[in-house]
Design brief:
This protein is an alpha+beta fold. Helices cover 51% and strands 9% of the residues. The protein has eight helices and five strands. It has a five-stranded antiparallel β-sheet with strand order 4-3-2-1-5. A hairpin with a 2-residue loop joins β2 and β3. It is globular.
Length: 277
């Protein structure tokens, strides 16, 4: 009971109450989801009852996703309901989807961290653990359209400064042109890296292990020996490399590659179209 109360408090910290933008688009499902979620938060002293309410909320939010709605707040609510309902793999998958749409969403980052803390990772070492985030917490992710605009502005100003330098032969103008050119190149490189990452995510989508005790095997069948005797548990994240029948070849963030039965995993289309606002 205390664990459920603590988890509810952590998940709800700083999270907006609902998805009012979708109310007109789906006047039945959204209010039902929000009502079930509210009942769950109020029933924290009765864990079984609260879990049923959160499961109902997650089902309703998932119905909105299935209907084609995609935005960070919907994913955040679906992830919260899934986590509080005990569906840890789905919560991690959904939070990751939301962060692809809104990389600077602090609530999504915080709740993903809460979910990852509940995964039983092998000890010690980095095996099966997610990659460490090297971006400083104070450094926001600038939207690509802003960086593209800044790159175009820097490119134009660089040429203007270069032309003025040829007319006036002032060294400061040449220096400004060089500096603006470097800025343009750096912004262009960041856009190219983002494009490469997006293509890689489409080629190798996110996979989350949905059961405990899953062994990473050397081939696509139970007859193949395990690549490692250390099992993977619910919530472990990986990338899909190849599909053969009902078996998936995956790569863990720590670099290990092996095969798992598809029924032991949870995946989904990370390509998202914007929802109504």
């Amino acid at each position: 009971m205390a664990d459920l109360r603590c988890l509810i408090a952590l998940v709800l910290a700083g999270v907006p109450a609902g998805l009012r933008q979708l109310a007109l688009a789906d006047a039945l499902v959204l209010p039902r989801a929000e009502a079930a979620f509210d009942r769950g938060t109020k029933a924290r002293s009765h864990p079984a009852e609260a879990k049923r309410d959160f499961q109902e909320a997650a089902t309703c939010y998932q119905a909105l996703v299935n209907d084609g709605y995609r935005n960070a707040e919907l994913y955040r609510n679906l992830g919260n309901a899934s986590l509080l309902a005990g569906d840890l793999p789905r919560a991690i998958l959904v939070y990751r989807r939301g962060l692809r749409l809104a990389p600077n969403d602090r609530a999504l980052h915080s709740n993903l961290a809460v979910a990852r803390e509940r995964v039983s990772y092998p000890e010690p070492g980095r095996f099966a653990r997610p990659a460490a985030d090297t971006r400083p917490p104070w450094l926001p992710s600038v939207p690509p359209i802003w960086r593209l605009g800044a790159a175009m502005a820097a490119y134009s100003l660089a040429w203007m400064a270069l032309m003025r330098w040829r007319m006036l032969r002032q060294r400061r103008l040449l220096g400004a042109a060089c500096l603006l050119g470097i800025v343009c190149l750096l912004l262009g490189a960041s856009l190219a890296v983002d494009g490469w990452k997006a293509r890689e995510e489409l080629r190798h989508p996110l996979i989350v292990i949905a059961d405990d005790g899953v062994l990473l095997r050397r081939g696509n069948g139970f007859q193949y020996p395990p690549r490692s005797e250390i099992p993977l548990n619910r919530g472990v994240e990986a990338r899909l490399l190849f599909t053969r029948g009902d078996w998936l070849q995956i790569e863990l963030a720590s670099g290990e590659i092996g095969w798992v039965w598809a029924a032991y995993t949870l995946s989904g289309d990370l390509g998202a179209k914007p929802g109504p606002h």
